[in-house]
Amino acid sequence: MDAWRGVHRWLVPYLLSGQRRRAPRPGHPVHLFLCIADHYEPRLGGASPAQAQERIGRWVEEYPKRFGEFRDGDGQPPQHTFFYPVEEYEPDHLDALAGLCRRGFAEVEVHLHHDNDTADNLRKTLTDSKRLLAERHGLLARDRRTSEVRYAFIHGNWALDNSRRDGRWCGVNNELDVLRETGCYVDMTLPSAPSETQTRKINSIYYAVDDPQRPKSHDTGCDVGRGPAPERGLMLIQGPLTLDWDNRKWGIVPRLENSCLQGGQPPSERRLANWLRARVQVPTRPDWFFVKLHTHGANEANMPVLLGEPMVRFHHALRERANRDPAFRYHYVTAREMYNLARAAEGGWTGTVNDARDYELVCGLVADTACEM
C-alpha cells in the first residue's frame, strides 16, 4: 500500500472536487495538451560515462524513428521535454539533446538535485546553469519582448521549497522566490504522491507566493485565471492526481493515478480518461485540458515503454479517437508551450492553439536557426 502513503494530505481536496471530476463526453469540445516532463538523468544509478552516453544516444536515434510518423492537429510531432540535471552537466550530453531539439522533437529545461543548500548558492547555481545552457548550447526559452533567458524547473527528489519534514534534498525555504528571480517561468515538479512532499492543492494550474519563514509555500495558491496574478507569484502546473477506480488492487482498493510514465505504468486510453477527468484547466478556457506527465526517461527499465510499442500504441489511439470524434483535438506540447497556453488562456485568448504556442516565450534556438524538423 506504498501508493497510499501520505494520501491524507490531499484526499480531502480530492473528495471536495468530486463535482468537477468528470471526463468529457464524446462530442464535448476538447483540446488536449499533452506534455511529457522527463526527469532526464543520464548518470542515474552511478552510470559510467559510456553508459550515460549510450542512454542519450538511444533517445536521439530512436525517438525520431519511432514517432516521426505521428502528427497532432497542428502538424506537430510528439514532443518531449528533457529536464536535465544541471549539477551533472556534461557538454556532450547537451549537444546531443540540442540536436534532437533542432529536429523539432524536444526542448530542454532545468532539473536540480541539491541538499543542505543556501539561497545564495542556489541563486548562483541556477544563474550559471541558465547562462551555460543558453549561451553554449542555444537551449532554454527567451521572452518575446525582452529576449531574457527563461527556464522551466523540476526539483530533484520532489523536495521543492524544502518540503520534506527532515529538510533533506533542499534546505532553502525561499526557493520559490529564488527560482522566480533567476528567470524560472513555471515549476512542473508536481504531483509527487506518494511522497510526503505532495501538496494539499492538486490538479491545478496556480500561482504560489513564497513565505521565506516557512517551507512548502506552494502547498496552497491562487488558480490561474481566477483573478490577477500575484506580484511575487510563481506559476506551477501540476499533472493529474486521482484515484483509479477502474484499476483496483485485489479488485477492491483503487490504485493511485499520479501522472507517471514508467515500466509498470504505460500510457493507455483508460489512463487518458483519468487524466481528462482530473480537469487540470484554466477556467477561462473550459475546452482546454492540460495533461502534464512525468517520467525518468534515462532509466533502461522505462525505455521499452517510452521508446517502444506502448507509446506507439498510445499515439495511434489518440489519432483514432480524433478521427472518431471531431470535437476531440490533441496537441503535443513542450513545457514552454504548455506555459504559454496557460498564460494565453489567462489572458482571454480566442485565437488558435497553434498561434498561442509562442504567446510569451519562444524557443531559444529560434535566435540562431529555428526549432524545425
* DSSP strand content: 15-25%
Mean pLDDT: 93
Distance between the termini: 45 Å
Oligomerization category of the chains in this entry? single chain
- Succession of helices and strands: HEHEHEHEEHEEEEEEEHEHHEHHE
Radius of gyration: 19 Å
Number of helices: 10
What percent of residues adopt helix (DSSP H or I)?
25-40%
Judged by helices, strands and strand pairing, the structural class is alpha/beta
Largest sheet: 10 strands, mixed
What is the general shape? globular
Low-confidence stretches: 366-373
Number of strands: 15
Structure description:
This protein has 373 residues and is of the alpha/beta class. Helices cover 29% and strands 21% of the residues. It is built from ten helices and 15 strands. The protein has helices at residues 11-16, 49-67, 91-102, 119-137, 175-181, 269-277, 303-306, 309-324, 335-346, 353-356; strands spanning 30-39, 80-85, 106-112, 141-143, 149-155, 184-187, 205-209, 222-223, 233-237, 242-249, 253-257, 260-261, 288-295, 328-332, 361-363. The strands form three sheets. Strands 1, 2, 3, 4, 5, 6, 12, 13, 14 and 15 form a ten-stranded mixed β-sheet that branches. A hairpin with a 3-residue loop joins strand 10 (242-249) and strand 11.
